[in-house]
């Protein structure tokens, strides 16, 4: 018997509050558990398996969620469980029937469309043997995480009594064996089926695509991705990894991505804030966390509409300019540029991660070549220390304003104030930070 949600009183609470279980969600969960047992004891002799099941359900309906899901209706839950237990005949026929009902519900219910095996397992485990793949998948998945996610779906959307009974049946299947094979097998089968269907449709779109209508083909991808979120995830990750090797090739072959200095400057200041929050004065760990912190900072900078538009534009411009220059000269380079450009035209969620990587590398490169003049101004950046100097900031802000870039100036100003308002930032040795960023060994590998 697996001890699913066998949480000790002093363990950290499952809801992610950081508090101890007994001081957080336990009281509410115990309350639900007691009510369910009291109700079900009237008609059933509850064995250990039944008790475990009730505990799991109580946790699922009792833990504190970020979204407001209202109070658990224990009367309704008890009624559904008792129906389930009354119907539970262990003959093959009814097991088969309930397996079909679970498969049907999980594959068709809109709210469960995103509740699948992570698509990256289909990329990382390169095998045609599905039994092997399933074993690999099982090792990495935690039923508790899955049950909490399932719980938040059930508690925030409408499920009929019958649907809920099917879900409960699925959960009890999951508790029936130590590896939760019965629970994950459903997800795995559905994920596989959807991947197969979507891949077929994807190839049809690609086949119908004639040279002059590639944009139409990209448009057709959107409904396909909407219908199969797992396939969108899969294509996104695959394309991202492919992009990463293409990017390396492009950079080695003279393609340069250049952005206005205010973007690099804002990114650096966001990064300093992040260092300050995570590492404080001790920079010993920075080498380790540097890529993560820069990706995070880039993510924050890209939330600004002006920045993301500018960055997209600059990347596509750099690609098309290099393509123009190398037409009839370097076939391989042109091929890679076209491929990278179509990556950015496809409706993929992984673009942002690709852009974060380009920004990180651009900032690194920028600081490798100091001193330099800033944009096309008279301003000279001799050392990165100037970036936390108010006089330098003010001069650059005046330059931006003189170019009519008021919004850009205010984004930078805001980020500067946020970064420098923290006392500890004065303790950070900027030169040391720059040394770490510009270290030859500092690569910005994408990890998902
Ligand atoms: Zn809690």
From TrEMBL:
Gene3D superfamilies, alphabetized: 3.10.450.50
Pfam families found in the cross-reference section: SEC-C (PF02810)
Name of this protein: SEC-C motif-containing protein
Organism: Tepidanaerobacter syntrophicus
